Amino acid sequence: MKQSEALLTLPTKTPAQASMKALVYHGPGRRSWEEKPRPTVRDATDAVVRVTTATICGTDLHILKGDVPTVSDGRILGHEGIGVVEETGAAVAGFKRGDRVLISCITSCGKCDFCKKGMYSHCRGGGWVLGHKIDGTQAEYVRIPHADTSLYRLPPGVDEEALVMLSDIFPTGFECGVLNGQVKPGDTVAIVGAGPIGLATLLTAQFYSPAELVMVDLDPNRLAVARTLGATQLVDGRDGKAVDKVMELSAGAGVDVAIEAVGIPSTFDVCQKIVAPGGRIANVGVHGKPVSLELERLWAHNITLTTRLVDTVSTPMLLKLVQSGRLQPQKLVTHRFGLGDVMRAYDVFGNAAREQALKVVLKSA
Ligand SMILES: NC(=O)c1ccc[n+]([C@@H]2O[C@H](COP(=O)([O-])OP(=O)(O)OC[C@H]3O[C@@H](n4cnc5c(N)ncnc54)[C@H](O)[C@@H]3O)[C@@H](O)[C@H]2O)c1
Ligand SMILES: [Zn+2]
Ligand SMILES: [Zn+2]
Q1: Does residue 216's CB lie within 6 angstroms of at least one atom of ligand 1?
Q2: CA-to-CA distance for 116 and 282, rounded, in angstroms?
Q3: Distance from the CA of 195 to the center of ligand 2, in angstroms?
Q4: Torsion angle of alpha carbons 154, 225, 61, 206, nearest 10°?
Q5: Ligand approaching nearest to the C-alpha of 45
Q6: Whole-structure pTM value
Q7: pLDDT, tens digit, for every residue of 184-237?
Q8: Contacts 24+ apart (CB under 8 A), 127-134
């Protein structure tokens, strides 16, 4: 036998890839907590993060219903989380092993034309990919592409439970609702939908001292929570009279800002009926069905209509406000589970009205 042949027949010694546990999507209605290979650095700009805190988003429930066909069988879910950097690629300059980090739900390269405009949601090499097009955060470890621009250092001394709310819901409520709605001192603001996003909008709208904050929902428990978080007026829409009630509260004038935080045609309709002349409609909800825009009436009303996919450009500012105690996102946490109990956490979050759930936090042991 020639020497080269002998070499070829030698058994190749690759170390067995370490495994981890993760919440895996297996098509509509099917999820399991199972063994998966532990991620490793693939590109030089990657970091691998050991997840210490994660949470579940309404969007994860949409995925499980089969509403997001771009999620494939075998995908690890989750786009919100906090963890400790385990490993970094050669090109990562801002983070090193051992750093505690917040994971943004939006991955951004920081270099493409959209990133340069601050529109990270449309990053050509990122956007919303975690728990969608690549494996996500509801796992013991996660690979984060473009780590330098997609991770944020945690301020010292702040609870992870508060900070994990900054992965998605607080930037979403603030950017898509408050900033796009141009909430100003003295404004009358109506927020339609008192879920985690609507409530994050309610808390961040108060940075601008609106005169009235009207909260519209169908769930009396969520409306009661909204009251404790600063809503000045509550509208229970179960009788189908939300529009009349908001018009009455505003003495027939309508509201300066109507924020849609549900994502269905009827709530968009409420917004277009309650917006005052000169007002703004800020759509936050993810819509799966067409809505009918009453342009035949609104054309003369000088209104502004905005839409947005969250960019998470406000994350550094929100981190400062949480650190100072000015913003307290932990107020939205209603349930806590170990990461290994994520299956049960989904059952609770999936029955939010019955369980009186807002955000469920998952913590690693
Ligand atoms: N634009 C973005 O980037 C972005 C990011 C994240 C989430 N979202 C979307 O924001 C929306 C809200 O998210 P969430 O997690 O708070 O959802 P959620 O389902 O927890 O909350 C929605 C709330 O709307 C209420 N509601 C339902 N029908 C209503 C009606 N007819 N009138 C009044 N209230 C009604 C429900 O009782 C619930 O409290 C969703 O559509 C979500 O997909 C958008
Ligand atoms: Zn989300
Ligand atoms: Zn980019």
Answers
A1: yes
A2: 24
A3: 12
A4: -50
A5: 3
A6: 0.94
A7: 999 999 999 999 999 999 999 999 999 999 999 999 999 999 999 999 999 999
A8: 127/309, 128/79, 128/309, 130/78, 130/79, 130/103, 130/105, 131/60, 131/63, 131/71, 131/75, 131/76, 131/77, 131/78, 131/79, 132/63, 132/68, 132/70, 132/71, 132/75, 132/79, 133/70, 133/71
